[in-house]
UniProtKB/TrEMBL annotation:
Organism taxonomic ancestry: Bacteria, Pseudomonadati, Campylobacterota, Epsilonproteobacteria, Campylobacterales
Protein name: 4Fe-4S ferredoxin
InterPro entries assigned to the protein according to its UniProt record, in alphabetical order: 4Fe4S_Fe-S-bd, 4Fe4S_Fe_S_CS, PSI_iron-sulfur_center, TAT_signal, TAT_signal_bac_arc
Entry-linked Pfam families: Fer4_3, Fer4_7
Keyword tags: 4Fe-4S, Iron, Iron-sulfur, Metal-binding, Molybdenum
PANTHER family given in the database record: PHOTOSYSTEM I IRON-SULFUR CENTER, PHOTOSYSTEM I IRON-SULFUR CENTER-RELATED
Length: 248
């Protein structure tokens, strides 16, 4: 709640300046190329980016109902779409809540109400971007203190939920074991449809399937300093793995 209020204050402070700058500047508007370059992970049910920016009224309702504190409001530092909700997967992914409360809370249609359950969510696609950093691939056990970053995030929240604490307790159980965190912590009802561990040399590696919804939990919980697995926002399995659109 504290972070949400702070983000909303920033929005009020800077939105007027942003409008004024657009009017008094050179008259340049955001091009489709800039929009693509600025693309970020949006909450479940987000319509196309252009429609999303037009429909979102920046009310913050989706933040307020998220039990995992996954959603943030963008500010001037984050580029276009000041005040719109997004998810920083490395900080906190989306845990694919059964009733998708963020969608239910959206009053404007920026989050499509046809998204009613986790399997309807299509946020992006997971990619093993840095296999050389993956603990499973290098056959390295999960180190002590690997969950500190996640614990620190939870400690910053004013209204920690039991769901967050349960998630942290489960994460802590991986310490000293072979890393399978990305596969075993996947929050969707049928995680094997999205990700599993396969044999790779002397170790293993995560393999992504069509059931991946791009929730970002694998990126958040990856225990290395720079996540080995990352989310490509708004891309589908077919886009990335079949069509090769890996630079969008």
């Amino acid at each position: 709640m504290k972070e949400m209020k702070e983000n909303r204050r920033k929005f009020i402070k800077f939105s007027t300046l942003g409008i004024l700058g657009a009017v008094l500047g050179t008259g340049v508007v955001i091009s489709p190329y800039a929009l693509s370059a600025e693309m970020r992970l949006r909450p479940p049910g987000a319509v196309s980016e252009k429609e999303f920016l037009a429909l979102c009224i920046k009310c913050g309702q989706c933040l307020q109902v998220c039990p995992y504190h996954s959603i943030k409001l963008s500010d001037m530092v984050k580029g276009h779409g000041v005040g719109t909700p997004y998810i920083d997967a490395r900080e906190r992914g989306c845990y694919a809540c059964t009733a998708v409360p963020c969608v239910l809370a959206c009053p404007s249609g920026a989050l499509d109400h046809k998204v009613e359950k986790p399997s309807d969510i299509k946020m992006g696609i997971a990619v093993l971007e840095f296999p050389n950093k993956c603990l499973a691939t290098t056959n390295t056990i999960v180190p002590k203190g690997h969950s500190k970053r996640v614990q620190d995030f939870i400690n910053k929240q004013n209204n920690v939920t039991q769901l967050e604490l349960d998630m942290l307790n489960k994460l802590n159980e991986f310490e000293g074991k072979q890393c399978t965190i990305c596969a075993d912590m996947c929050p969707i009802p049928n995680p094997l449809s999205a990700i599993t561990m396969i044999r790779e040399g002397n170790g293993k590696k995560p393999e992504i399937y069509e059931g991946c919804i791009g929730c970002g939990v694998c990126e958040e919980l990856c225990p290395v300093n720079e996540s080995a697995i990352v989310i490509k926002p708004r891309l589908s399995f077919e886009d990335y793995y079949k069509k090769g659109l890996d630079h969008v």
